[in-house]
Records
---
Amino acid sequence: MNRRRFILSSTAIAASLTTGIIYWPNRWHYIVVHHSAGKFGTIKFLQQVHRERQQGDPVDAIPYHYVIGNGNGLKMGEVASDWRQKNHIWGAHVSGRNTDRNFRGIGICLIGNFEEHTVPEAQYMALLALTKNLMLEFAIPLSNITGHGHTQGESTHCPGEHFPMPRFMKDLI
Ligand SMILES: [Zn+2]
């Protein structure tokens, strides 16, 4: 093989490996639950927030894979996503200390601030249904489902002190 062909073929191999890693759609191994800590949420709004807060992320999309509305912006219990989820791109929803949870973790964000109030029942039921479906689809064990702040290495109150984590764990069994 001459040098030029070698360079071309190794570039092609590296590109396909990279693409494979980024787009490998069945790699999902964790689910991390978040709250938006705000009263209002739409995909567009969260994209804008992400642009401002995480300027180092090359992916111009919401940092999560799914958002669940609270009736203010998105409908109550409405599940929405953008191209990050549709293309199976890694998340940007936990810190750099947990690269594997970003890379193989599905981020679900509930609109609302559960430091201030409880989770509306309809929104909770939508989260439960979505999480159960994802657990089945990707064979994700219960032990790999966490709240953001309940994830080892993370220091945040997200998804808020009123998020019913014990109930959520029980309902997922
Ligand atoms: Zn969070």
Note: The chain has a mean pLDDT of 91.
---
Amino acid sequence: MNSTELAYRVRKHALVMVNKGKSSHIGSALSMVDILAVLYNDFLNISPLNIASDDRDYFILSKGHGGASLYATLAVKGFFPVHELDKHYQNGTPFSGHVSHKGIPGVEFSTGSLGHGLPVATGLALASKIDNRNSRACVIVGDGEMMEGSNWEALMFAAHHKLDNLTVIIDRNRLQSFTDTENTVALEPLDSKLNAFGCYCLEVDGHDHVEILKALNNKDNDGRVKVIIANTIKGKGVSYMENKVVWHYKFPDDEQLRAALNEIDGDFYAS
Ligand SMILES: Cc1ncc(C[n+]2csc(CCOP(=O)(O)OP(=O)(O)O)c2C)c(N)n1
């Protein structure tokens, strides 16, 4: 399986999961599917065989509200059976809407309260350096989430400790819950701010698998935290959801699900 096929499968699962669970945040989940697909297919040293090894890489999804696509990625990559995804959002199961590590193989840390994943990833990267391990830490944060002060504190700390084994990917879809990030608390010029904090900053099309992988493999950060600003489209892959803030917190009904799946199949088989 290549990353394109992984992304295709994850998009389908995520849509079905939120429809069945009558849950939400599908726009947020679809926004980062291509990033997750490249990370898990081509970059991270994480597999069902090494999830307990000290030398594995660490991945944390800080924007835990988009958990459907992380659960689906892990299932398709064999961390647990795909049929378990039916439990998403069901009472009494571990598959909560916001990401949970309890009882779900492959999830490192429960998230959903924004602003925690990057500080934790920073600690993991520092521990790996102290222990002389090769583990790298990777984290996806939302762009709206970058308004949480804890992220900037973590970046300052990471720069001080020269954590070049830490990669931060910002899902820059420009929307948050209710409106555009720039209408809420402006982030721009984001790259200058990150560079001023001592990071090595790259910008990519967050749906272009070749660009994403090239940025992940870039080794020019030289003692600096790598931050990849991934320009994405919230709801990517389903035209009636794309860039529509209403799909931040909404699930497709059965008819909308059929239309979404048809569109995704069409795109995949045409490519
Ligand atoms: C500490 C905290 N405050 C508020 C929220 C409510 N909340 C959930 S998602 C969200 C917006 C996140 O936007 P962004 O980081 O841009 O992610 P996107 O869904 O657009 O990918 C907010 C404010 C939360 N989960 N945690």
Note: The chain has a mean pLDDT of 97.
---
Amino acid sequence: MKKIIVLSLLATLAFACGPSSSDKGGSEPSAAAPKVDGEKVYKTYCVTCHGLYGDMGASGAFNLQTSALPVEERISVIANGRKAMTPFKDLLNEEKIKAVAEYTMTLKK
Ligand code: HEC
């Protein structure tokens, strides 16, 4: 039991010292194409409400085919949630949230 606590503490520390702590480290590829497959993230976490094509609308989910929300605001909706939509910031890292937000832009008709 003690071992588990120590391990999770170490994991937390390692995470805290991760790439997100260096604001202007210059090592983060900001403009580069995301390494994460946004489509995969979407199919794992988002289809239950938004559907494969973004237009399912379960639990009042917005239609992502007609959404005019800019990608920066999508990132914040995905990270922090809104009404019936659950926040994803504890589930997905920044990179994944960005990738999936960009993927939702491609669903637009
Ligand atoms: C539990 C169901 C649910 C899940 C899962 C879910 N959403 Fe949503 N989503 C919603 C609801 C409901 C809204 C509308 C919120 C409101 O009424 O303000 C919404 C709104 C949005 C919006 C804002 C659209 C707009 O035009 O304002 C975006 C973008 C979005 N979701 C993307 C995603 C992504 C990407 C995922 C997967 C990481 C996801 N959602 C997972 C239910 C969900």
Note: Residues 42, 45-46, 48-50, 59-62, 67, 69, 74, 77-78, 82-86, 88, 100, 104 surround heme C (CB under 6 Å).
